[in-house]
Amino acid sequence: MRLNTGLVALGALSLPIASADYPTSGPDDNGLYWIHSEGLSAAFIAYGASISRLLINDQYGIQRDIVGGFDNASYYEIDQQHPHFGGVPGRYANRIQNSTFEIDGVTSHVDPNEHPTDAAPDGANTLHGGHDGWDFRNFTVVSHTNDSITFSIVDPDGKEGFPGEVVSYITYTLKDYTWDFKMVALATTKKTPIMLSSHTYWNLDGFANNETNTALNHTLYLPYSGQRVGVDNILIPTGDILANKQGSVNDFWSAPKQIGTSLNDPEAVNNCGLGCTGYDNCWIVNREAPYNWRDEGNFVARLHSPWSGIQVEVYTDQDAFQMYSCNGQNGTLTLKGTQGLHGDDAFPRTIPQYGCVVMEVEDWIDAINHPEWGRADKQIFGPGGDPYVLQASYVFSINATATP
């Protein structure tokens, strides 16, 4: 299948920070494909079409690598933890209840890979597409310029139990201080669910904050998210849409709030699953239609660190936003050489609990099992119909304020 050139966004060929250190004529010695803009440099790998580096100068002019990952592309495939580091989870991101769904009266059983029980030894549900989801596979690089890269994947009929073949293109572009991405997927043979995202681990201090080794100092603002998807003890949606009451643990809409502010509140216990304190929640994005998602006033999330002065605003055409506060990290994932403090025993060179933030733009999670939500046209696609499209822009600034 020929690449539609409309899927590749080409920007100005401007030189980035320290651009001469990173090649653009293919992968470097670590297997990284670099792209650049005036304010940013980013590196990607074919495994999972993953972002592996994102470099920006902080308020003191010090270059920070603000996304989690590994030093060498080859390690992603052998790492046993597989934290979905910067990849594209697919063909269906997040969780699928009981690893089943129904389309036009036909039930599909997909690969279970989370929460094994005696009754379901392989898992009670499917997370991020199964044991061999998209971010476990190598994509093909079909275009690579100074400021843009496009990956492609062909997902066969029946892979991980999903019906029909899907062909997808993932395009990442840098321009000025903006990281744009566009994800397009085509169902070529059968109706099938498709929901993608970017599973990037953020720490706007580059894990180098000498005051705290967590990201709990980061301030989050979700101006359109007065509601969230209700979930059970293993984070499977119940069908309920819950209000985020003003002043509650999950209230990030009424005003910007540091992520760690409410973690001592009793409501924070079990907020991210049974026995979990923190966040792994899907906020609904309620914007009055019609809206232009690229407009300055339409960011769905804003993350800010007072220590580095780095801020990112997230713009997207998607209607949900998952935030994970890295509750499950336990210091076993090593930082890259481009990150953290060196030679300070008080700050080990690993990612601790709450040491990062995952921000996923996507649609309502597990909506394929909740037809009452009316999300079928956003999640079920077939041959001859419209393609699946996800668009997002991550707009960075320095020394911005964290007020509305």
UniProtKB/TrEMBL annotation:
This protein is called what? Aldose 1-epimerase
Q: InterPro entries from the entry? A: Aldose_1/G6P_1-epimerase, Gal_mutarotase_sf_dom, Galactose_mutarotase-like, GH-type_carb-bd
Tell me the superkingdom of the source: Eukaryota
**Which CDD domains does the entry mention?**
galactose_mutarotase_like
| Listed Gene3D superfamilies | 2.70.98.10
What Pfam families does the database record attribute to this sequence? Answer: Aldose_epim (PF01263)
**Family matches, as SUPFAM superfamilies:** Galactose mutarotase-like
Which residues fall in a coiled-coil region?
Answer: none
